[in-house]
Write a structure and sequence with these properties.
Blueprint lengths: L3 E4 L2 E4 L2 E4 L5 E4 H8 L4 H7 L4 H7 L2 H10 L6 E4 L5 E3 L1 H5 L6 E3 L4 H6 L5 E7 L2 E6 L3 E6 L4 E5 L13 E10 L4 E10 L12 E6 L4 E4 L8 E9 L2 E11 L2 E10 L4 E2 L3 E2 L8 E9 L2 E8 L3 E7 L9 E8 L10 E6 L5 E5 L3 E6 L4 E7 L8 E4 L12
Antiparallel strand pairs: 1-4, 2-3, 5-6, 5-29, 6-7, 8-9, 9-10, 10-11, 12-13, 13-14, 14-15, 16-17, 17-18, 18-19, 18-20, 21-22, 22-23, 23-24, 25-26, 26-27, 27-28
């Protein structure tokens, strides 16, 4: 990527920018690379057409990693599975920027299949989003560059028992092995007796080898909910365990993508079995956050001071009366805690709102009709190519 780079001389008239001279400037490669790596992805995609040299630079995997590191503090976006998909820079939108909400284009493979049962957004990492289509097909997609890649179909090594299992997924990056991985958990469905839980089936797809591998089952007695939350090389889940009749204990479990093993479960903060319900785990910046209701009266938010899920590292952000929450819904999933202290909440897959627990105010971002249900996920813009990931 080194050497001298041609910088076209341009003039700007109104909104038009034109080449003013056929003789470009020459700048050392390290200066050009440093400048370009600090620019937003949208601009860089446009600059790929400046000339072949710039196109090769911006398409290089090493430049993509450099740009991602330079812009790691950029605002995240929330992707919503409407048709067409919708993306919102919620920090900018909440500040009044109407252009922070925009439409995207689904992967070609998705549009060709015309899915009957819809899509699930099961994980995001480094600008890549992992989609499950019709509970069978896997697609890796970069919504910023519009590149996508079909992955091996979901495994069926215990197909005869598939209806006995619920499935949870996780997607993340194993930095120690420079590898992206998809994890599928087969979680036994709970009947009348929660203690009837069997072992959890674990299968891992390493994108570089493009092969699913079955790992040793997890003997935990836990019921895991939702998809894995990726942070610092690990996928995190909330686990629920029955202690006695109508009594549950909640813990946080993490799966290390490097060693492909679960770590010891730790209890959620300030935990009292009879008072906690609807716990939701997520990521805010480089920290984990946790939301839950306490009893029938309070809504609480917690965040880690640093990356350490031990109970002592958690700090409570707020505790408000549950009657202050916007409206009533049977299901709620918090997506993030913003820089301005707001909570991004997905209600029943029907509405996406920004809720300010201090002021008690709500801003609606998106909604759908009762006939359909939305999936939503956070992602960052990047140049990382799903196609260039080693096969």
């Amino acid at each position: 990527m080194a050497g001298m780079y041609k910088i076209p001389k341009t003039t700007t008239t109104g909104r038009r920018t034109e080449v003013a001279s056929k003789t470009p400037c020459l700048l050392p490669g390290d200066i050009v690379i440093n400048i370009l790596s600090r620019l937003p992805v949208k601009n860089l995609i446009r600059f790929k057409s400046v000339n072949k040299q710039w196109g090769n630079l911006i398409s290089h995997p090493r430049f993509a990693r450099m740009q991602m590191k330079q812009c790691e503090n950029q605002s995240k976006r929330v992707l919503i599975s409407t048709i067409p998909p919708l993306a919102i820079d919620y920090e900018a939108y909440s500040a009044g920027d109407c252009k922070a909400k925009f439409k995207l284009v689904y992967p070609t493979a998705f549009m060709k299949k015309g899915p009957k049962f819809g899509i699930k957004l099961v994980g995001s990492c480094n600008g890549l989003i992992c989609l499950v289509i019709d509970n069978n097909e896997l697609i890796l997609w970069n919504p910023s560059t519009r590149e996508s890649r079909e992955l091996p179909k979901l495994p069926g090594s215990y197909a005869p028992d598939r209806f006995r299992f619920g499935f949870s997924f996780g997607f993340g990056f194993d930095a120690s092995n420079d590898a992206y991985k998809v994890v599928q958990l087969g979680i036994p469905r709970v009947g009348d007796d929660d203690n009837a839980l069997n072992s959890i089936k674990i299968e891992v797809l390493t994108l570089e080898s493009n092969v699913w591998r079955r790992l040793q089952d997890l003997q935990s007695g836990l019921q895991l909910s939702g998809n894995g939350i990726f942070l610092y090389g690990q996928l995190h889940w909330i686990g629920k365990k029955a202690i006695a009749a109508n009594l549950r204990s909640y813990v946080i479990v993490s799966f290390d993508l490097a060693i492909e093993k679960f770590h010891k479960a730790v209890p959620i903060p300030d935990h009292e079995e009879r008072s906690i319900s609807y716990p939701v785990l997520g990521v805010s910046g480089n920290c984990l956050f946790l939301f839950f209701t306490r009893g029938q009266s309070f809504y609480e938010g917690w965040i880690t001071k640093e990356y350490d899920i031990n109970t002592s590292s958690w700090t409570r952000m707020f505790n408000v009366g549950i009657d202050r929450l916007p409206g009533y819904r049977t299901w709620r999933r918090e997506l993030c805690y913003t820089k301005t202290g707001q909570v991004l909440i997905d209600y029943d897959g029907m509405e996406l709102v920004l809720y300010d627990p201090k002021r008690g105010t709500t801003q609606f971002l998106a909604s759908t009709d009762w006939g359909s249900r939305l999936h939503s996920i956070l992602y960052t813009e990047s140049l990382v190519s799903p196609i260039m990931v080693k096969k």
